[in-house]
Amino acid sequence: MIELILLERVENLGQMGQVVKVRPGYARNFLLPQKKALRATKENRAYFETQRSQLEAQNLKRKGEAEQVAAKLDGTHVVVIRQAGESGQLYGSVSARDIAEAVTAAGFSIARSQVVLDRPIKSLGLYKTRVVLHPEVSATVTANIAQSPEEAVMQEQGVDPLSLDREETAGAADAAGAPAKEAAEEPASEPAEE
């Protein structure tokens, strides 16, 4: 385990200025390159204490800007068009990158690393996703995964396009199958003449 001083709040780890112990790979591959932490040496502790007020001021400024963006972004609906099977299973999946591109197309500049997905999206429907704008600020965006813009509108209204397709298919099969059944039954009902 390596001791680090956090330069900003890190979710599930600690607050700014806190000394934490983390695994070497997490420190080496994420916290140190992203400038989220410093090694907890005597010199770095002294440096952090001299820079603490400046770091806190920068953090407050970034947090304020993130809160303004979050107020506009929160509740935004984006549409992602994908091909899917009859059951609604997607051919592939919708990733954080796809949602980030849709949000960017909607007028907000975000990176895919800011989109938090618990698991990949693999079926049609509406999904609430979290966008982290700052370690202490996040917004919720609804991703509407549909096969066409028309289906996206239907999903927004609470109508399941797949159930409508099944009803139309069943109705068309009944309409096409009914005359064929009647025609097949008629010759059997007539008496045979010789």
The radius of gyration computed from the alpha-carbon positions, rounded to a whole number of angstroms, is 28 Å
Provide the spatial order of strands within the biggest beta sheet.
Answer: 4-9-8-6
Low-confidence stretches: 172-176, 178-191
What global shape is seen? elongated
What would CATH call the class of the largest domain? Answer: Alpha Beta
Blueprint (SSEs and pairs):
Layout: E1 2-6, E2 19-22, H1 24-31, E3 37-39, H2 42-73, E4 77-81, E5 89-94, H3 96-105, E6 115-116, E7 121-123, E8 125-134, E9 137-146, H4 149-156, H5 161-189
Description of the structure:
A hairpin with a 2-residue loop joins strand 8 and strand 9. The chain is of the alpha+beta class and 194 residues long. The chain folds into two domains: 52 residues, Ribosomal protein L9, N-terminal domain (Ribosomal Protein L9, domain 1, 3-Layer(aba) Sandwich); 88 residues, Ribosomal Protein L9, domain 2 (Roll), CATH 3.10.430. 45% of the residues lie in helices and 25% in strands. The strands form three sheets. Strands 4-9-8-6 form a four-stranded mixed β-sheet, sandwiched between helices. It is elongated, with a radius of gyration of 28 Å. The chain is built from five helices and nine strands, in the order E-E-H-E-H-E-E-H-E-E-E-E-H-H.
